[in-house]
């Protein structure tokens, strides 16, 4: 169970590292620095990639530099207009354990001398005055904005100021002592470098997708509620009547039935084909049942989330996991368009 404990601690450094696939490939105990020429970039999800030609022991090598997704980098004010091919850049980050000349970027120093911090919780590398990573918000000095509605139906985003408001928060409720022997064995056999929960642009299922750090929105469609999540352009349909017959076939997102408990939306989901709970490979049993509670605060600026997982294959008793989202006037659900090169030029 040491692996689960270590992962739950390290998942926040950087706090969003688990958002797409396992970052165990990168040695987060080390920071390396490269300086060279930007020769190419792929501005795409799930990860933006840079190519940097640098000198290594008297030889010119090309570094494969992986970054966060477009949605995360946009919150760091880092986009294709920030640089151009041919620029001299410096990159700080964590090296790959598996592949030479490959790293995950946490900081970039641009030709202008401006440093960009690319992830929450990461300090500046070159300058103490570098702007910290921050979520979108109102411009400095602007009057405090009020949400369009006090209820559920609007766009919500992760809080990068509090781990409980980001992806890491959802897994803080998992205790090694709560796991069944079978679940412990599955975790012990899981290879964090080669066995990734999500590969490339393959979508994730519930409950794992609920860790995603981007915008999510609730839309009222009468007999159903649409829950849109930016990651992998995910659409969850919540049926407000349990009279409809659930499909016989299981699916990544399962079949969800909702009801109102005051202002709280309670969602019960069964028929899930997804095989995981958390991004470290904790298994989800074939008969798992989820009960989610979405509760907006009275002022409409925070959304508390609780999911109770009943899964006798994995947990000794139902597991209760929690996180929250916040409302921001500039948060939105962006097109994810995984694998497609994008540009803001």
Provide a compact summary of the structure.
This protein has 345 residues and is mostly beta strands.
Rg, alpha carbons: 21 Å
Number of helices: 4
Under the CATH scheme, the architecture of the largest domain is Beta Barrel
Order of helices and strands: HEEEHEEEEHHEEEEEEEE
Query: How many separate structural domains?
Result: 2
Q: Structural class of the secondary structure composition?
A: mainly beta
The beta-strand count equals 15
Any low-confidence stretches, pLDDT <50, length ≥5? Answer: 1-21, 138-142
Main beta sheet strand tally, sense and closure: 9 strands, mixed
N/C terminus separation: 48 Å
Mean pLDDT, nearest integer?
87
Q: Tell me, what's the shape?
A: globular
Any idea of the CATH class of the largest domain?
Answer: Mainly Beta
CATH overall fold name of the largest domain: Lipocalin
Hey, roughly how much beta strand do the residues contain? 25-35%
Lateral strand order in the biggest sheet: 7-8-9-10-11-12-13-14-15
The helical percent reads under 10%
Describe the structure.
By secondary structure, this protein is mainly beta. It folds into two domains: about 30-115, Nucleic acid-binding proteins (OB fold (Dihydrolipoamide Acetyltransferase, E2P), Beta Barrel), CATH 2.40.50; about 155-325, Lipocalin (Beta Barrel). The chain has helices at about 1-10, 70-75, 165-170, 180-190, and strands spanning about 30-40, 50-55, 60-65, 90-95, 100-110, 115, 155, 215-220, 225-230, 235-240, 255-260, 265-270, 290-295, 300-310, 320-325. It has a nine-stranded mixed β-sheet with strand order 7-8-9-10-11-12-13-14-15. Strands 1-2-3-5-4 form a five-stranded mixed barrel. The longest helix is centred in the N-terminal third of the chain and has 9 residues, at about 1-10. It is globular and about 70 Å long.
